[in-house]
Design goal:
alpha/beta, six-stranded mixed sheet, six-stranded parallel sheet, 10 helices, 12 strands, binds 2'-monophosphoadenosine-5'-diphosphate
């Protein structure tokens, strides 16, 4: 039996076992996918002994994505671009790493809002953490002409601009609404709105009607940002799609089947999210 897992600290909240468990059953695969609580001081050792512990690979979540990147013997282009890894597997006796957050975000954006890039307008990113990095990489690869990064701590936005080059520009947090009015896409990568806490305070009345509004927060599924955007008739992309799609490449690596993100799987996750928020 093939075994994979997700590691994090804490890990109880992870919904990855629900996703991979659904696919294992759906495709009749003799496999297992478990949660493993691994404290920061034990990450490198855990990853170095993945195979000895009977795992074919793992997902990595907060706060271990940078440590996983460093621990890997072979880093693919997606991991190198973001300097962090969320998907690991053993191949030829070596520990390989990828970052599938970029793939997850871009797949769902393209599915939900095809033509988002038709007008060659800048895109706006709120936040400058690891998730922002993965998303900026994807948008640049998709030929976004300019990426505007707005972050409370401006220095972190500037560091991203430096890392990615001249198409990425840093802006003050307070300008996030004003400087996004002509954006093709606006993405919230901060934790604001999670569990209904906080407000991004963006008024979409003056926004271009073609703007696509994305949130990577998925608890609740309809965040305040998404509700406000829907209220203005804008197209929206929720955070659950990214979570579901980022899981696809890992499952294929470990279990040999490229799984499908079905309506049934999404409904399963929605029910789980609603059970925790009601
Ligand atoms: P991740 O790596 O998962 O993206 P992170 O590195 O902790 O997470 O980043 C969280 C982001 O949310 C950061 O951009 C953070 O802003 P700072 O860099 O200034 O810390 C942003 N964030 C969190 N709480 C915020 C708040 N109350 N107001 C504005 N930004 C906030």
């Amino acid at each position: 039996m093939k075994r994979a897992c997700v590691i994090g600290w804490p890990i109880e909240h992870s919904r990855s076992p629900l996703i991979h468990g659904y696919w294992l059953k759906e495709y009749g695969i003799d496999g297992a996918y478990t949660k493993e609580a691994v404290p920061p001081e034990a990450v490198t050792q855990f990853l170095r002994s993945l195979a000895q512990n009977g795992f074919v690979g793992c997902n990595v979540t907060v706060p271990h994505k940078e440590a996983a990147f460093v621990a890997a013997d072979v880093k693919d282009a997606s991991a190198l671009a973001v300097s962090a890894a969320n998907t690991l597997w053993i191949e030829g006796g070596k520990l390989h790493a990828a970052n599938t957050d970029t793939y997850g975000f871009m797949s769902y954006l393209n599915q939900r809002a095809p033509g988002w890039d038709a007008n060659d307008l800048p895109v706006s990113i709120l936040g400058a953490g690891g998730a922002a990095r993965a998303i900026i990489h994807g948008l640049l690869e998709a030929d976004a002409p300019e990426v505007r990064v707005f972050n409370r701590t401006r220095g972190r936005a500037e560091a991203l601009a430096e890392h990615f080059g001249p198409r990425v520009k840093a802006f003050d947090w307070r300008d996030r609404g004003r400087r996004s009015r002509k954006a093709a896409v606006l993405v919230n990568t901060t934790t604001i709105g999670m569990n209904g806490v906080g407000s991004l305070d963006i008024d979409f009345h003056t926004f271009d009607p073609t703007c696509v509004v994305c949130d990577i927060v998925y608890v609740p599924l309809q965040t305040e940002l998404i509700v406000r955007a829907l209220g203005r008739g804008l197209r929206t992309v929720d955070g659950l799609g990214m979570l579901l799609h980022q899981a696809v490449p890992g499952f294929e690596k470990w279990f040999g089947v490229r799984p499908e993100v079905t309506r049934e799987l999404r409904d399963l996750l929605v029910a789980d999210i609603e059970a925790t928020t009601c």
